[in-house]
Amino acid sequence: MSLRHALLGLLSERPASGYDLLKLFDTSLATVWPATQSQIYTELTKLADAGLITVAAEGPRGRKEYALTEQGMAELRHWLTETAPQRNTRSDILLRVFFLGVLTPGQARAYLTELVEMSAQGEESLRHLAESIDWDDDNLSTYGRIVLEYGLRFNAMRRDWAEWAAGQIT
Amino acid sequence: MSLRHALLGLLSERPASGYDLLKLFDTSLATVWPATQSQIYTELTKLADAGLITVAAEGPRGRKEYALTEQGMAELRHWLTETAPQRNTRSDILLRVFFLGVLTPGQARAYLTELVEMSAQGEESLRHLAESIDWDDDNLSTYGRIVLEYGLRFNAMRRDWAEWAAGQIT
DNA sequence: GAAGTCATGTAACGGGTTACATGATTTG
DNA sequence: CAAATCATGTAACCCGTTACATGACTTC
């Protein structure tokens, strides 16, 4: 049920249309919470029906600009303060590691080396991202930077780990 | 589509029933790829229909022990060597960080401190897990240890990051 | 013989992905 | 006026979760 909260969160900054939100997802939330166009539009309709957002303005081409209602803001705060985040996330990448034993040691090492590569690239592209963004002083920027720092540290950790793991295979 | 590969992977070690697999999931794969009982049983039926596994033996109470077929092993190897793992995983925890700006600085700091706590506990319980397991010399153990090391490093990284992030909030 | 464990299966529902479908407005 | 972009909506399908349902065997 987090998509709805992601939408509420983005709308808490400023009103936006489905189209705007789709782009915000692709640019800022993509790595943390990807969402598709169809998903966003259907969820926006549900949120409006539930009274958590409203159509604040209409524009050309049927554009509907949504804004957060008081109720929506309350729900967002409730989610942030009263509900526990869940720790378990599925990881395709780690699942494979469990079963590397069915491969030859060389192949297993190759997989881990690929992960080193992937993590290094991830770090690299986050650095580029950090430079390309013109960080405003708004909330999304402040906390966006903190999330980005997480990404940097995460990739560095994974790179080191994969390097170590590759060395473990004899 | 990774549940099927998780099942194939576990069956590559030794034959097992749905019931056995359910427990293996709960004990060894829970943090990386959780699965429910209903999911496991339905997927096993599909895998058997597809010829990737077969009922190798039947036991009391309708117990069906499944074993990997050659085809199943081929599919497992194919998955491990030829298909790219996908990097993006959704994170409830990080999504919240983006929107901490709607809370007071104190509340935001409280959330991050909670994450410090959660990560420290995660690390702790992984240490206990490591001690409680009697590590065999089989493949699952070798690579299981590597995955566990990942968990330790991950939690340590997240703890440090959350501590740092809490300090960023003025 | 009661309680616990072993053992399997199915149905309803919710969220996410892919694909289809349409059309208005702006820009070169 | 053609191409690009803006803009929304819906349908089919897959995967995962929760809940329901049933019964055989073992242990105390």
Structure, explained:
The structure is a homodimer of 170-residue chains. In chain A, a hairpin with a 5-residue loop joins β1 (53-58) and β2. Chain A is mainly α and 170 residues long. The first copy, chain A, folds into 2 domains: 2-82, Winged helix-like DNA-binding domain superfamily/Winged helix DNA-binding domain (Arc Repressor Mutant, subunit A), CATH 1.10.10; 92-168, no CATH class. Chain A has helices spanning 2-13, 18-29, 37-49, 70-82, 92-98, 105-132, 139-168; strands at 53-58, 64-68. In chain A, 68% of the residues lie in helices and 6% in strands. Chain A is elongated, with a radius of gyration of 20 Å. Chain A starts with a helix and ends with a helix. A two-stranded antiparallel sheet of chain A has the order 1-2. The first copy, chain A, is built from 7 helices and 2 strands; from the N terminus they run αααββαααα. In chain A, α2 packs across α3 and α6 runs antiparallel to α7 (139-168). The interface between A and B is large, with 60 and 61 residues. The first copy, chain A, binds a DNA duplex (28 and 28 nucleotides) through α2 and α3.
Describe how the helices and strands are arranged.
The structure is a homodimer of 170-residue chains.
Chain A: H1 2-13, H2 18-29, H3 37-49, E1 53-58, E2 64-68, H4 70-82, H5 92-98, H6 105-132, H7 139-168
Antiparallel strand pairs in A: 1-2
Helix pairs in contact in A: 1-4, 2-3, 6-7
Chain A binds a DNA duplex (28 and 28 nucleotides) through helix 2 and helix 3.
